[in-house]
């Protein structure tokens, strides 16, 4: 099924601590920090202005939004508490068939979370 193919993506997360260095370890745990997540997914299918292409672009954006919505749950299970989503950015670009490449859309998303360590 085509839906299984679109999950060919790379996910990278980085944590940027926003903690003053003069604090004790237990004080640092309560200081909020930022988690940034970047994802790239390929959605094979038609590009252009057809109804199918419009639906594929919408599916790509929806997938990124759903990932962003669930990221705090995942982060809270593993690393943080009191997580909240701060921002979401989505970009969907057509990858038109050329040189043997599969036609479809490359969707990239980036989201920022604010949380404290467990």
Describe the structure in brief.
The chain has 118 residues and is an alpha+beta fold. It has a single domain (2-117), classed as GMP Synthetase, Chain A, domain 3, CATH 3.30.300.
Structure description:
The chain has 118 residues and is an alpha+beta fold. The protein has one domain: GMP Synthetase, Chain A, domain 3, CATH 3.30.300. The protein is built from three helices and four strands. It has helices at residues 2-5, 25-30, 51-78, and strands at 8-16, 33-44, 80-95, 104-117. It has a four-stranded antiparallel β-sheet with strand order 1-2-4-3. The longest helix has 28 residues, at 51-78. The radius of gyration is 18 Å and the shape is elongated. The N and C termini lie far apart (40 Å). 19% of the residues are buried. Mean pLDDT is 82; it is low at 1-20.
Give the helix level as a range of percent. Answer: 25-40%
The CATH architecture is 2-Layer Sandwich
Cα gyration radius (Å): 18 Å
Main pleated-sheet profile: 4 strands, antiparallel
Query: Which CATH class?
Result: Alpha Beta
Strand content: 35-45%
> Stretches where pLDDT falls below 50 for ≥5 residues?
1-20
Number of DSSP E strands: 4
Helix and strand succession?
Answer: HEHEHEE
- CATH topology term: GMP Synthetase, Chain A, domain 3
Mean pLDDT, nearest integer?
82
Number of helices: 3
**Sequence of strands across the biggest β-sheet:** 1-2-4-3
Which geometry do the CA atoms define? Answer: elongated
**Terminal-residue CA separation:** 40 Å
User: Structural class per helix/strand content?
Assistant: alpha+beta
Count of individual domains: 1
């Amino acid at each position: 099924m085509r839906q299984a193919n679109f999950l060919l993506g790379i996910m990278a997360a980085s944590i940027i601590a926003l903690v003053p260095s003069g604090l004790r370890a237990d004080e640092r745990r309560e200081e909020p920090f930022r988690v940034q997540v970047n994802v790239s997914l390929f959605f094979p299918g038609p590009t252009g202005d057809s109804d199918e292409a419009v639906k594929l672009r919408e599916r790509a954006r929806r997938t990124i939004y759903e990932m962003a919505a669930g990221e705090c749950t995942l982060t809270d299970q593993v690393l943080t508490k009191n997580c909240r989503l701060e921002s979401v950015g989505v970009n969907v670009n057509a990858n038109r068939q050329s040189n043997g490449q599969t036609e479809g859309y490359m969707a990239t998303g980036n989201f920022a979370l604010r949380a404290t360590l467990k």
